[in-house]
Amino acid sequence: MHRYPDGGSNDLRIALARHFSLDADRILIGNGSDELISLLVRAFAGPGDEVLYSAHGFLMYAISAKASAPRRSTRPRPIFTANVDALLAAVTERTKLVFLANPNNPTGTWLPASEMQRLHAGLPPPCRARHRRRLCEFVESGDYDPGIELVLASENTVMLRTFSKLYALGGMRVGWAFCPPGIADALNRLRALQCQRGRPGCRRRGAR
User: Fold this and answer.
1) What is the pTM of this model?
2) With contact defined as beta carbons under 8 Å apart, do 28 and 184 qualify?
3) 52 has which bridge partners?
4) What is the pLDDT of residues 114-158, one digit of tens each?
5) CB 196 within 8 A of CB 169
6) Which of 24, 52, 120, 141 could bridge 13 with an S-S bond, Cβ 3.0-4.6 Å?
7) SS in 3 state form for the chain?
8) Cα separation of 101 and 200, whole Å?
């Protein structure tokens, strides 16, 4: 534990790629999903842009967006489930990112695969959807999809996962993202620039 990890987290990326039958070059490892959310906002939203997310969703969406862009949230349905119609209605020409935790933290509600596909299909091309699936291992319903297929079928969708919940590794701070090639490249460039500038945490990246 006294050694700095490999900044590219190659062993972990290769292991994840083998386990899920994915391309390792499209996988990024971060200090939990929090760092990955922050990188996404910094890479794709700036002054004058909007970051959209559901009310009562994961708190880091608003925290990360606060530093870079205006924020907008939509009200959930009475059972605290994200409302696809409300999200789509809230999208404007300034919206650059749409975040959705599915299952949601902290409410534990979730959307079936058909609703996630409807949300993705309804977003205009400039928008990038970010689906956070940190609790997906606990879902037992047959109509749920963790998001891999949405990423494979598009160029604007990212799936975020974590080892913190099912694997009880919260103290290790390991999150990962599966991205389209262009987005993976942009995030890797930003992380390299962040480390060159000596931003806090740049040495901590990797499998730990």
Assistant:
1) 0.82
2) yes
3) 72, 98
4) 888 899 889 887 776 666 555 555 555 556 677 888 899 888 999
5) no
6) 24
7) CCCCCCCCCHHHHHHHHHHHCCCHHHEEEEEHHHHHHHHHHHHHCCCCCEEEEECCCCHHHHHHHHCCCCEEEECCCCCCCCCHHHHHHHCCCCEEEEEEECCCCCCCCCCCHHHHHHHHHHCCCCCEEEEECCCHHHCCCCCCCCCHHHHHCCCCEEEEEECCCCCCCHHHCEEEEECCHHHHHHHHHHHHHHHHCCCCCHHHCCCC
8) 26
Question: Which pair of structure tokens corresponds to residue 146?
Answer: 């963790």
Please answer whether residues 130 and 183 qualify as being in contact, where contact means their C-beta atoms are separated by less than 8 angstroms: no
Report percent pLDDT > 70 for the chain: 78
65 burial level (CB within 10 Å; 0-12, 13-18, 19+): buried
